[in-house]
Known about the structure:
Elements lengths: L32 E9 L4 H4 L4 E6 L12 H4 L5 E3 L1 H13 L5 E4 L5 H11 L8 E5 L5 H5 L7 E5 L5 H8 L4 H16 L3 E3 L18 E11 L6 H16 L4 E5 L21 H14 L4 E3 L19
Parallel strand pairs: 2-4, 4-5, 5-6, 6-8, 8-9, 9-10
Antiparallel strand pairs: 1-2, 1-3, 7-8
Helix pairs in contact: 3-4, 8-9
Amino acid sequence: MNLYSSYCELCPHRCGANRASGQRGSCGADDQLRVARAALHFWEEPPVSGWRGSGTVFFSHCPLRCVYCQNYEISSKGAGTAITVERLAEIFLELQEQGAHNINLVTATQYVPEVAAALRQLRPGALHIPVIYNTSGYELPYTLHLLDGLVDGYLFDLRYGSSALAKRYSRAEDYPQVVAKALAAAFEQVGPYIVRTPGLEFDGPDAADHPDTPLLASGIIIRQLLLPVPGGLDDALTILRSTYARYGNDVCYSLMNQYTPMPQVAAAYPELNQPVTEADYSALVDAALDLGVEHSFMQEGDTVTESFIPPFDGTGV
């Protein structure tokens, strides 16, 4: 099944690649749907990971191509296995059968037509758990609209408020303008942030042991990864304040200090070859509290040394 036109415009680059005939787009993807891993994942925010894990599907390639990407092996190198839409639908059901609290679609922008086709086979009906779209934020409202009625929530990155930083580290000078429109489209689609108490039939018999563990039902968790670069804290504060001014407590804010220096940045981007400072992260957290943020997640301890990067070894594919 080939779901592409001869001129790809799924992402803001609008590169026009003829992916239907196998040409690769600026994201690196051609006409083959590729997945690098599909398994229970425990390193998302608590309402997403719960106690049994999030049914996370890592898609190969990515339109944004951040130079510091922790998933460099799949985003830039394209590691993964070619599968069909039918197989993707089976993977969703297999993750549900394994006890996943949700289906978590990681960097699926370049494959949204296939993802939507797979979900339409299962919803409503066979797939009972929520579906979460996990994105860099570099999206077109048109592409997100293809998922309307098929996804319940978003894990939505807000990387930059500065065009200069976006250009240097993600080659996307238009990121601030693009992400504002994409976030508005996502919010219109799934509405305010809502969590629920475990107890639905698909939560399983072990839900009774976790009555105080809220699970994401719908809405948006906004992720801010603080970067250890000149101007990084000021940019993060700008993003936080402008987002709160627009959405208030209708969204959840996840403030992350887990930036991990990757080997590919050491030579060309020496400023990225270090973790964020405790002082900078504390300043970001304090700003959120001063604003009156009610729904939030903050990280404690030395998260840089923890393994947030799973092996992209084809598990579950």
